[in-house]
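Researcher: Structure for this, please.
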Amino acid sequence: MSRNTLNTLKEFTISGSKKGKFYSLPALEKALGAKISRLPVSIRVVLESVLRNCDGKKVTEEHIRQLANWGATAERTDEIPFVVARVVLQDFTGVPLLADLAAMRNVASKMGVNPKKIEPLVPVDLVVDHSVTIDHFREPKALDLNMKLEFSRNNERYQFMKWGMQAFDTFGVVPPGFGIVHQVNLEYLARGVHNADGVYYPDSLVGTDSHTTMINGIGVVGWGVGGIEAEAGMLGQPVYFLTPDVIGVNLTGQLREGCTATDLVLTITEMLRREKVVGKFVEFFGEGTRSLTVTDRATIANMAPEYGATMGFFPVDDATIEYFEGTGRTRAEIDAFAGYFKAQGMYGVPKAGDIDFTRELHLDLSTVTPSLAGPKRPQDRIEIGNVKSTFSDLFSKPTTENGFNKKPDDLTTVYETSNGVHVKNGDILIAAITSCTNTSNPSVLLAAGLLAKKAVEAGLTVAPHIKTSLAPGSRVVTEYLTAAGLLPYLEKLGFGVTAYGCTTCIGNAGDLTPELNATITTNDIVAAAVLSGNRNFEARIHPNIRANFLASPPLVVAYAIAGNVTKDLMTEPVGKGANGKDVYLGDIWPTSAEINKLMKFAMNSKVFKENYADVKGAPGKLWEAVSSTEGQVYNWPESTYIAEPPFFEGFAMQPKAAAAGIQGARALGVFGDSITTDHISPAGSIKEDGPAGKWLKEHGVMKADFNSYGSRRGNHEIMMRGTFANVRIKNKMIPPKADGSAVEGGITIHQPSGEQLSIYDAAMKYIAEGTPTMIFGGEEYGTGSSRDWAAKGTQLLGVKAVICRSFERIHRSNLVGMGVLPLQFIGNDSVESLGITGKETYDLKGLEGEIKPQQLATLVIHRADGSSQEVKVLLRIDTPIEVDYYKHGGILPFVLRQLLAA
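Model: Predicted structure, token format:
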């Protein structure tokens, strides 16, 4: 902090006579003669970090000059070392990360080095939000019962977290029951600006969840990374990335009556996916942006992963300051926040023409219409009037066209469960108000409450077999729904508070009844879920529910009442009310005036202060009752939840030489487009007859105590057995069924034996034989959540390279971080054009000697008929630091060697 690079350390006015120091971008502009004031605001925030952290080693003056001279349409070759202010973890990714840190301390201790050398160098907050499941619902004590089950299932994990809290000085935990990490981050953890020794600097972070981008809604630069990358950031390693393109989105106009922030974000997601913004920064500006509330901005920022951007950034303005006041931040913090951004020339939403963007897009907010998205991807937006026809059309289309491959006549067939419930295709069996995207936004939650009130007063009900739930993003939501008098009406329709955490959206919906499951599987029923979430990939919500629709909270309630997605809510009644009277959506839809009248209940700073004071003051009896061990080194007690990770086995201060090429490899799997991290990384429930279920039973765990993959992420034995085990994944190596449809599930064919095995069993067989393996894929490989186990599991299965048409940003970097080569087909080359079936053997040449970022390599395909074909592929190790990571066998051993050598 003492360096005064380019004479930019200046003073600014906080308030009155109070001053603070800061690294001035206006001063840098003068010093370099660069047009810094015309740079996108998000680039300027990163530039400040580069300037402030310039040490001449990891961050140099050349880095400052490169970024200060960012060209809107320049070729992207410069690598930015971005030092973040803090790191945020959710517990599914946080526990294995903590396990890695603990394992590093074990290595240090064995080598006679003080284990305290392994210590987060920036503040780290872990929010426990992913561990609760909706077991109990539609009953008065559902919240209490679900939390008790959560603690009983996760006691070993929570003991480990408590050990971490006392072992590491900069590691804090927000216990279960406070809310979803992104809403807690927005309402509580984000400080606007930080102060170190009198020098102020803007908040920035990376988080181990894709939707970390929600924080972009309040002008904070941050995005999701895998746990692997976050760990390096915690331990003093800058987050390295190529200088990005920045796409400016000019919002004009305003939303029409009846449209919600959810409708807006689904429209933006569809639009930006179409515009191919993957890996780019997106920055919103213009009059329409100014008109949006901060919670609407946060809703849009949250879904950046769904539209593919690294960030969806909104600048700081008066609305941001009002939000900080309403959420209980201190006056001193707020004054420093506003004063700092004004001094940097970064305060206020830019107008058209103020900023030089790579490309500008435009959206008139008045063109947004009420919408849902689905049934399998968040970018597939459907106007509400087209939901019925879209589902009916997809019902009989082949799966290759996003359909369900059913006979059209089956659509209206009624089936009966053994306990007398009538079910048909398109029936909604899960309706959930859930997920950070929308439960952080009072406008849509109040709208859901108002719709519920009108529905109850009209005599409408929700069928008792529909699994309904309300899982708010923070306890503040319950306070304002109660204060507004709306919670009782939601409860009457089955939407009582069931949890504070990330539930249905991540596969923690809990199970359906055995009778419903049996009827669905026996008759191959295409049942539906409607949720206010951000993700609806196949098998994510529930393995037996194949059609999943994202919708605003009021629409979730409306569809729960309607009971089936084949009902057109624009022309048909939602249901029959009192005296058998038809009630239409327009009869119960709240007006903007009705919502705005109740918004005063949602921004009560006193409620926010009191709620978050409990994080440290009164975290709850269940958390206080969790016992734990003490000490600087973890003793790894016997557990099926936590195990010492194998990534440092045989560790030495000098890395082994990286293998020069790959010889005689086999394909472990050959996949198509849009293989998500949900397909790759274990998530949701654990199948009893799968490799992970068998391992648990061998270790004395009963099926009822399996819990979820996410809760067992701290045990590599479970996770590697669940990698590529998704019930909906389609391996092209498996011959299709008699009807031509693809076989689903994590199976493959071992070569040359021809034996059909689980992917895990085949991988272990190849490892035993000394045969390297590869994975082949199509477009957008690794899209979805930033699951580090998608890369860790791939590595533990012995996969040396993943070759596909294109990669999702986080998963590509995670593969490098685990020492797995990501390679990309060039031009029109693909699995299909090259005739890759998985029966071949493969060599990889051209990586001998010094590896260079984005160099070409040669894939040699040896076919069964004795012929061979050589194909050029692009090495997607993108930056020089990633070359170092790969040489060291991954980012974790690289960082550990640096720390031990220091």
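Researcher: Any notable elements?
Model: The mean pLDDT is 94. The chain is about 35% helix and 20% strand.
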